[in-house]
From TrEMBL:
InterPro entries: Chlamydia_OmcB, DUF11_rpt, OmcB-like_DUF11. This is DUF11 domain-containing protein. It comes from the Bacteria. Residues 10-109, 264-366 form the DUF11 domain. It comes from Paenibacillus agilis.
Amino acid sequence: MVVPVYDSAVSLTKIADVIDAIAGEFVLFTIVIQNDSTRTLNQALLSDVLAEYYQFISGSVVVQGVRQPYTTPYAITIGVLEPGERIVISYRALITYVPDRIMTSTQASLSYQVSSDPSIISSNIVHIELFPSAVQLSKESNVSTVIVGSRVTYYINAVHFGVFSGQLLLIDKLPSEVEFISGSLVVNGELRRDETPETGIKWDPFMVGQLVRVSFDVTVKARPLTGKLVNEVDALFTVQLPSGRKAVSTYDAQAEQIVVAEPLVVRKSASTSAISLGEEVGYTIAITNVMAYALNELFVVDLLPSSLQLVLGSVAINGWPDPNVNDLTSGIQLGTIEAGATITIAFRARLTQYEPNMLITNQAAVHYWVEYNRGSVLSNIVTIVANPDPPKPPPPVDPKLRLYVASPSITEPVFVGSVINFQYILENISEDDLFQLLLKFTMNQNGAFVIGSLYVNGISLNDNPFDGFIIPQLKIGERIEVRFQIRIVGAGDGSRLVVGASADYNYRGINGAVISEQVVAIPTIYRLYDASVDVVKFTSAKVVMVGDIIQYDISIQNTGNIPLNLTATDKLASNLKLIPNKLTVNGVIVNDRELSDGITILDAEPGVAHRIRFTAVVTYASGRAISNAAFVVATAIVDNVVREFSYHSNTIEIKLVEDEE
């Protein structure tokens, strides 16, 4: 059994940054180990067991200025402590629920060996007086289901069950899909026209036993991706402790999620799954009002792709032709749709353009007016396949010129941003000299010629091969090599790169007459992959001071055409401290450590946005502004080939001012 002893040559000192605190505050403990002896201490182990009401903050242990993310104060291995060596250790703890005023005591211990003799020493006892700071916070709304354009009333109740009066600050960071209605804020029956829930609602003094009741109205401006409005309120309660220090505790409450329903069901269908050049396809849009009341000023917009052209006079509404509708992009006015009613729109479109392997996608949008606000609902996406052009006339029986692509021979997937090297061969296989050859290349909008990359037989030309260039002469048996580069700039038109080539040439017939002919190369087609991501970071905070809480939101949307694995990081400024258990991904709480280590979102589908939200407190003044940006790595996996793409968000800069007090 090891008996604790006092060693005058080895000191162990424990310090706390406060002498009193309230529930919800953080306490910083610092422990100093000093070996003033001439002996080397071996197998040194520090142990500091927290008292009741304290909760260790994971990842907060710092030894000699180096953070130890996986260490706890209950057992910190020091190892060898040389003569004269000094070790400084610190960590943070959260004060949890405190039922009543209470004095707490904590003490650290250090065990070690000198030669083979074990020893234990104890630190001084640290006393901290704790006080309850009981603010009961709740939030509710007057509805459980709404539609875009509806008005919602939120109610916030704060009840003081603590022992000190102080100042209450309520902050409600409304979701981006709603908008606060100015002039609707009421606090304990008092109308406050110059305040908003987002900038903060103050109540001072907040007396023991007092109830503060807040109500305000918002308008639903958009439907969240999840179909539900998630809204919470934060409370900051500031009191002055017996020591004279101001203490701040935080609370939060979330209202029941409100379902944002689509008032209309919009279904679109096509009469065929495939269409050829010059043929027509019939589209039908069925709009049903699923609400218990009428919706007004309906109009339908259908943006047909450029390859389709509306057949004039083909529009019919509920089976009745409407010859006045000749443009679907400007909208079809429908007026009012009664509760439970269905309106059907039918029209035809003709395929006027064709690209190989082209997919034609189409979607309708229905706009409506309700409660002084406009909303809209999208239909499902309809996709049909475009068949090839009608057969072309066969090439000349005895072609004199051969044009073909020699490269690329690409085996890996092609992504937007890639550069592809092309090599074409132009070969005179006739018994005639050819002259005035016009060589011209074509490609769809997904590619762009790399300026300066055109070489003919190794000689650089300033021409653009897609504008065409002249080769004066090609003698019998002569062969020309043409090389250039294309950069992939997009993935539209069915996510394909289509490159073609043609050569017009002349030769003299038997009687000396000039004969003109053309040869066309087989088109080169590549499947394109787009790993584009939009990263937007935002906050409503503009100006803050030490002690203020900032809520950040990061919106990450896959704007490409393939699923991606996303890893998002956000390196907070040194004077920002992440508030524990506030980091959410799409409304779900995740481990706080993931914000700096990387938040992973697997299989992020194209067109789907993901929301990361967290809050941080300003711990000290450093400079005049707090700058911050997010970083996202998108990983694409195609045919077992892995590619990574990096994206940065916009930089958020918040002005930092000094506390006037």
